[in-house]
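Entry 14. Ran structure prediction on the chain below.
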Amino acid sequence: MKHYYLYAAGSFIQTKDILKVKEKYTDEYFAEVCMADEKILEECIQKAVGVENEMSELSSGAKYKILKQISDAIFENRKTLAEIIAMEAGKPLKYALIEAERASQTFLIAAEEAKRIYSEILSLDWFSDLRKEAVVKLFPVGTVAGITPFNFPLNLVAHKLAPAIAAGCPIILKPASATPVSSLELAAIINKTDLPKSAFSVLPMSHIVSKPLIEDERIKKISFTGSPEVGWEMKTRCRKKRITLELGGNAAAVVTPSADFEEAVAKCVTGAFAYSGQVCIHTQRIFVHESIYDNFVRKFVERTSKLKYGNPLETDTDISVMIDETNAIRVENWINEAVISGAKVLIGGKRTGSYLDPTVLTNTHKDMKVRKEEIFGPVVCIEKYLNFDEAIDLVNDSRFGLQSGVFTNNIQEMNIAFTKIKAGGIMINESPTFRMDHMPYGGLKESGFGKEGVKYAIFEMSDMKILVKPY
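Output, structure tokens:
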């Protein structure tokens, strides 16, 4: 069992309070991690605040160099990092390797964005001969708290940390208790760079210990990815503090008669079952035109049946265990509730320990949890629609609105989808699960508040100021 010290403002520290981390597939402990207490957190906050001026004065070139160093080191160590992700998160190695490569790209994007932080010169002589101009610039907001979930233990950390460095903000990270190892491996990489030591901490800790991240006025900004219940409650507690919430949803895809049929099936299967559906933009609802519905369902079930279950460390594994048995039982119960209410299981629905078979349901209705709530599991509901307007209404019939997918080759339908779907992102001929790390990312309705995506997160971590002067 490997032992990990926590990373407190540039120092690796041993503590008595230990968190044991399981390899999710074998259910055996493979690592132990030191936990932070209130004293350590207070010291890290003090040091972060103390280095705010130094961080704000870093040149674009200095920030570029730091971020590029991190990006290069992640890429060089991507296979090792992917194996750690596979062990602690139960994520199949093929997806874990993609995550490690994306994390490298996220830091590279931030390196580039650090060289072009937004600013502009605004002429003020529009309506008179007033000889003044305005300089508009972004300034770092101050110390940031990043709170990350288990499902992307490296790249979602990157999406908090990389923009913070680019913006010039110190950051304290609280990783998910189920998957803290990836972030501590990242801390070891960052510790070798030129980033000011007090500017970054990785503190595995309890919710009680972490309260100051939400409530302490010295923390100027929170970036949270997690459940809606926790996120919206956090927003009420942080009061005047700036906050970004990425809270997931029950994403929908629409498949029209004009779509590339085989492509739609393949991408929807991947969107539904990649990492056992434990993705914020997991394809949970699919609405298929009645003329192609039967064939789509047949092909979808056939393709689902070929997904290979196994150890996430094996390169040919498509699907593995969920994060824990508690969540697997929850999803199993939701499926059973739906069946009692009239849903039909086309494939799957069975659970063994923390593994749940990829499950396809039909004959569902909007009040079933499998359609109404964020299931965060390997379950998809497939239903038919009669016309495109009805499909749009079905997609929008949700309290969530993160991303949606529309498979169509009809330009008019593309434009209608963009105008009328109430979601933060509409993916044409892609499943809702599609994401590139430089895209703006964030939902409408109960799916979130604010935007991620490196450039857009930099805006969220900055204050805009204007200087008016003569010329």
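The chain has two domains: 38-247+447-470, 252-438. Will compare against last week's run tomorrow.
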